[in-house]
Amino acid sequence: MEEVAKLRGVAILAYGENFDDSREIRPGRAAAGEFSVAAPLRDAGLTKADVRALAHAARLDVAEKPAAPCLSSRLAPGLAVTPERLAAIEQAEGAVRSHGFRIIRVRHLGIKALVQVSPEETQRLQSPLVQSALTPAILSAGFSEVEFDPIGYQGAGLR
Question: What's the whole-model pTM score?
Answer without folding.
Answer: 0.69
